[in-house]
């Protein structure tokens, strides 16, 4: 079975620009040791005032989004090692077409760092998108992030769609498993993923805790072996 991971995070006001730079390995993260893992990146559905400039869009989100509003929502997904870089990018773009379509301004990136525990590749993708929905109305940056006006949409900001319910999260996780399995099968791999919890799959063990590179390097050899045996 291939590795499965799909989580959703929310960024508050003032957090979007820094996170966009992080996933795209730009600004502070450009050419820095430890961040040389960018495999591919892209963006889409940006308004005219930020066309081809995602950094400008996220900067405006940080400036104009309401004080208690989210500036972005992010889906983080593990990508199958069985696929090559071009196939992984194809998979991510397919998922974006399915989940985002033309509805939200977004930016994405694929990172492929070395796996600290097991070695080898650890490809994963970040998809960050604005909760503001694209409706075809031309708005300047200030108006884009204002409160939506249901009676007069052209006078307010873009409507928000947070997708923050547990039900919608579970649906996203299931769709990611389905599209990933379709691509694995398409490229001739028998590996597959399951979005359900270990308990729902009938597997009697605790979920593995993500340790991170620093904590893995601090483990004794026998501790590493024990963790790998549990997989």
UniProtKB/TrEMBL annotation:
Domain MobA/MobL protein: 23-213
Xref: Gene3D superfamilies: 3.30.930.30
Keyword Cell division: no
Alphabetical list of InterPro entries matching this protein: MobA_MobL
UniProt keyword annotations, A-Z: Conjugation
Region annotation Disordered: where it falls in the sequence: 207-231
Record-linked Pfam families: MobA_MobL
Protein family (similarity comment): Belongs to the MobA/MobL family.
The protein, known as: 43 kDa relaxation protein
Organism: Candidatus Contendobacter odensis Run_B_J11
């Amino acid at each position: 079975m291939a590795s499965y991971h799909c989580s959703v995070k929310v960024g508050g006001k003032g957090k979007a620009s820094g996170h966009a730079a992080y996933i795209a390995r730009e600004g502070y993260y450009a050419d820095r040791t430890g961040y040389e893992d960018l495999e591919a990146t892209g963006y889409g559905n940006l308004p005219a005032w930020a066309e081809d400039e995602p950094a400008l869009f996220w900067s405006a989100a940080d400036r104009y989004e309401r004080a208690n509003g989210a500036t972005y929502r992010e889906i983080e997904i593990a990508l199958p090692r069985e696929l090559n870089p071009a196939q992984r990018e194809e998979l991510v773009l397919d998922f974006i077409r399915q989940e985002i379509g033309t509805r939200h301004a977004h930016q994405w990136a694929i990172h492929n760092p070395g796996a600290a525990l097991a070695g080898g590749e650890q490809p994963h993708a970040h998809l960050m998108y604005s909760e503001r929905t694209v409706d075809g109305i031309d708005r300047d940056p200030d108006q884009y992030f204002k409160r939506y006006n249901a009676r007069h949409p052209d006078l307010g900001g873009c409507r928000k769609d947070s997708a923050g319910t547990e039900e919608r999260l579970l649906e996203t996780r299931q769709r990611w498993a389905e599209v990933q399995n379709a691509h694995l099968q398409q490229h001739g791999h028998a590996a597959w993923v399951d979005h359900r919890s270990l308990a729902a799959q009938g597997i009697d063990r605790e979920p593995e805790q993500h340790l991170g590179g620093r904590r893995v390097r601090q483990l004794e050899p026998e501790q590493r072996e024990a963790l790998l045996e549990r997989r």
